[in-house]
Specification:
This protein is of the alpha+beta class and 421 residues long. The protein contains 16 helices and 14 strands. The strands form five sheets. It has a five-stranded antiparallel β-sheet, sandwiched between helices. Strand 8 and strand 9 form a beta hairpin. The longest helix is centred in the N-terminal third of the chain and has 20 residues. It starts with 6 loop residues before the first helix and ends with a helix. Belongs to the protein kinase superfamily. This is Homeodomain interacting protein kinase 4. Pfam families: Pkinase. Keywords: ATP-binding, Kinase, Nucleotide-binding, Serine/threonine-protein kinase, Transferase.
Length: 421
């Protein structure tokens, strides 16, 4: 067990076995620690199987969380986890001090994968692969009337990157809920802030579609190499969204319980939108909380995502045009029919994923020059230069701009630790 062995973990498991458990587990490594507990890599002696064990302290607050998660895991017990891209749950046990949830062992979450690759933008074809699988997971959760409520790169796991590149599964149902049991936010917060849907931010009724908003934010982050909306607080989160996607409709703000925290009534009755976003100075005066600029790119619309990192594209031949069309498709798909304005986001339907959008875009190419997922048929280099605006290009007026206040030395781990609130 070496330096990673935690005697308290081993003793706890042996004690549980002595009272009610038939298997011993050897703890090899701590995989991660979070707000509510930790996850360890363990070996199940009876089967020789490597598993991941989620360990939580046994207290009244965590007991309620565990009870909720176990109920949802039981709901998913008959699900084909491979087809649904959901982590497989094995078993549960506890002692007087701790709870133990045993899951299949997966390789690495998407945030750690990004960190390992220096937060380089991920090729859109890989983002599409990941997105399709997560949409399948969300579609299955919708069938089971479950809201995940904490979708983010840390909760999307790569299964085995060498054997199955970019095959992923969704994990962590500690914040999940059943539709019928939740309508408004009951906890101080749900969803990590960077991926928090407008309904949650504003205190509006919500449903499973908040997960689709989170997925759109994850898609953008994989492409940008940085969170799309890395707000330092909920006001910054709202401000970023408004600057990118426009103001929400007045009817939504009229119904929102938290609208007064971020918006003010217009002093001019003749103005069509009676609400205005507070300025950072006004928010500071009201709350003593300072607004901060943490974005890497200043986007005036989500369409500008197709221009981000475009200068880095040096793919040969059809790789360039494929990536270009993929970028256009992703910019369209990431908008998720803006919950912020319509309050009716897209449903988590895999059929609406990027692959079909890319296929539609490819129809603009001559026959024989297109294929699906993505375009791979070689063609003369001069045709590529004529069709793809990636070579010898000049900056466009509508391109995204790098934030002048962006500090590349900001420690992302510290920022993400605070993003939960």
């Amino acid at each position: 067990w070496g330096e990673w062995f935690d005697p308290s973990l081993g003793q706890g498991m042996q004690k549980a076995e002595g009272h009610m458990w038939s298997d011993f587990y050897d703890v090899f490594e701590i995989l991660g620690k979070g707000t509510f507990g930790e996850v360890v890599k363990s070996w199940k002696r009876s089967t020789g199987e490597m598993v991941a064990i989620k360990i939580l302290k046994n207290d009244s607050y965590r007991s309620r969380i565990i009870k909720n998660e176990l109920k949802l895991l039981q709901t998913m017990s008959e699900v084909d986890t491979e087809a649904a891209h959901i982590v497989q749950f094995h078993e549960f046990f506890h002692d007087e001090l701790k709870f133990y949830l045993v899951f299949e062992l997966l390789e690495q979450n998407l945030f750690d994968f990004q960190k390992e690759h220096n937060f380089s933008p991920l090729a859109v074809r890989h983002i599409r692969t990941v997105t399709t699988q997560v949409l399948r997971a969300l579609a299955k959760l919708k069938e089971l009337s479950i809201i995940h409520a904490d979708l983010k790169p840390e909760n999307i796991m790569l299964v085995d990157q060498v054997r199955f590149p970019f095959r992923v599964k969704v994990i962590d149902f500690g914040s999940a809920s059943i539709f019928s049991e939740v309508r408004y936010v009951k906890e101080p917060y749900i969803q990590s802030r960077f991926y928090r849907a407008p309904e949650i931010l504003l205190g509006l009724p919500f449903c499973e579609k908040v997960d689709v908003w989170s997925l759109g934010c994850v898609m953008a982050e994989l492409h940008l190499g940085w969170p799309l909306y890395p707000g330092n607080n909920e006001y910054d989160q709202i401000r970023y969204i408004c600057e990118t996607q426009g103001m929400p409709r007045p009817t939504l703000l009229n119904a929102a319980r938290k609208a007064h925290l971020f918006f003010k009534r217009s002093q001019h009755p003749e103005v069509a939108n009676s609400w205005q976003l507070k300025t950072p100075a006004e928010f500071l005066a009201d709350t003593k909380v300072k607004s901060m600029e943490r974005r890497k790119y200043m986007l005036k619309s989500l369409d500008q995502m197709e221009t981000v990192n475009i200068h880095k594209m040096i793919y040969p031949d059809t790789e360039a045009v494929a990536e270009y069309f993929d970028l256009r498709s992703m910019a369209t798909s990431s908008q998720i029919r803006s919950t912020f304005r319509t309050h009716r986001p897209a449903a988590p339907n895999p059929a609406s994923c990027l692959s079909r959008q890319c296929s539609r875009d490819a129809k603009g190419l001559p026959a024989g020059e297109r294929s699906s997922l993505p375009f791979r048929v070689p063609r003369p280099r001069e045709m590529l230069a004529a069709r793809c605006p990636l070579r010898a290009r000049t900056p466009l007026a509508h391109e995204a701009t790098l934030c002048p206040h962006f500090d590349p030395l900001v420690v992302r781990e510290h920022q993400r630790k605070k993003s939960r609130r």
